[in-house]
Amino acid sequence: MQQMAELLKAQKLKVTPQRLAIFKILYETTEHPSAEHIYKRIQATHPTMSLATVYKTLDTLKKAGLVQEFNVGEDSFRYDANVNTHPHMICLTCHQVFDLHTDKLQHIKKYVEPETDFDIDFEKVFFYGTCAKCQKAKEKS
Amino acid sequence: MQQMAELLKAQKLKVTPQRLAIFKILYETTEHPSAEHIYKRIQATHPTMSLATVYKTLDTLKKAGLVQEFNVGEDSFRYDANVNTHPHMICLTCHQVFDLHTDKLQHIKKYVEPETDFDIDFEKVFFYGTCAKCQKAKEKS
DNA sequence: ATAGATGCAAAGTCTTTGCATCAAA
DNA sequence: TTTGATGCAAAGACTTTGCATCTAT
């Protein structure tokens, strides 16, 4: 978290309790929460923080390269403090979003680039299916 | 297009001029238009069609598996009549979305599945970068 | 004839913006 | 002190919904 303050300073951004709190939530969860989720969770520690601040802060952090934003087909965006390129898996039953820890897709960018005339910077990969828990629930029924 | 009527009938959906017109636009473009784009383009031939009908129709076609929907980070969804799993490339400069025709990623699902406890149905892959045209424009400047 | 689709307007989400106040540097 | 951040309310953008009318079957 100390590190977070440094990262903000490095971008010439002010270090505020709000920014630290939002980053902390994102840093400690694997749930890829939406702005609304973050807002609700933050009530416990920062009951006066407004939803607008959550949105503004997420935008600021995104532009600073400290969080990434994506949409898996829902009506709102989700956020992730892990800005490294990594695939996500979406359960079509419980709608949870998981990180996929694998090195198997490390080089798809370079693998694919010769096939195109694009200069590729990064990719986003989403796998859709059924998580372990929901698979078991279906077996029982 | 005759085929489209058959596909609708197969789903026990009525074959209406509105549905055919929307599918035709999606089928003939490679632009991956949003609902609003489709609505504007459709004015030329169907000036009385409402935006609500465009949304309802896209939802119907999506549920029937005749179009796919995705969000590349914009404020609206885009639609594609090509429902086969295929990667998209997004130009971060001109914001156009292109299909990537390649067989290099045909098997990433099976390649990755052993690394997870998910039962994967399909994937969505997006490459972000600079298209050929925008690369050239930058060289000149 | 009947079930279902369309079109319009209104409403519902999610997100952004304007502006006065407040806090970090 | 100065610059930028926060919080509130209002506005904006995209999408959905309710309902009367119309149309495909």
TrEMBL record, chains A, B:
Sequence similarity: Belongs to the Fur family.
Alphabetized UniProt keyword annotations: DNA-binding, Metal-binding, Repressor, Transcription, Transcription regulation, Zinc
Annotated cofactor note: Binds 1 zinc ion per subunit.
Signal peptide positions (record): none
GO function terms (MF aspect): DNA-binding transcription factor activity; transcription cis-regulatory region binding; zinc ion binding
The protein's name: Transcriptional repressor
InterPro entries per UniProt: FUR, Fur_C, WH-like_DNA-bd_sf, WH_DNA-bd_sf
Residues that hold Zn(2+) according to the record: C91, C94, C131, C134
Natural source organism: Vallitalea pronyensis
Cofactor(s) it depends on: Zn(2+)
Record-level GO BP terms: negative regulation of DNA-templated transcription; regulation of secondary metabolite biosynthetic process
